[in-house]
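Quarterly update from the structural biology core.
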Amino acid sequence: MVTRYILFDLDNTLYPRECGLFHLIEERIKEYLRIRLGLTHAESAALRHKYLRAYGFTLVGLMNHHGIYPEDYLTFVHEVDVEGVLGEDRGLARMMSRIPLKKVIVTNSTQRHAQRVICSLGVEPFFAHIFDIAFMDYIPKPNPASFHKVMNHLGVRGGECLMVDDHPPTLATARALGMTAVYVGRGEQVEADYQIEEIKGLEGVLMDLQLIGERGVAR
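Predicted structure, tokenized:
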């Protein structure tokens, strides 16, 4: 089956975790819990950990147990200084320009946050779609339902997609659906078809898969 689409995660995938952007979002999540639920700092951290363990996504726990309106939460936690943290990544843009496959973003964040990130990185023109958490009916990755909604919209099957993500459970779901899974991260050994330390290593993966040639030409 021919690979037609590359599905990219956003946070900690298109940019390195070490830049600290997602840490700012995590701090906003704990602040949201503290303010909206009247918790201490320690209690908010503990509740976030509890909901991550139970649901894989803090918002799901808040919706299930506290009746939180998702847009209120998502707007609050993504009000971080994206532009102050991320700058133009010309190397990433050059790599994207050499990859002739269709590219989309699949993220548990919002459309606005994704737009801010890719605009700051200078890679906005390369993505045909952004599938955000609202598109997925607030059912986050790694739930298979979120993948099925994206694939149905694109008109593809799993075997026609390559998933690039920093979250091992998401890649496990992608593989179960027939996708080629590429893990972005250092140190940790995960069940994926390929592992790269940072996003620019993707070009080597695509050459190994014979999806592009040495100069980024489709094969």
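The longest strand covers residues 102-106.
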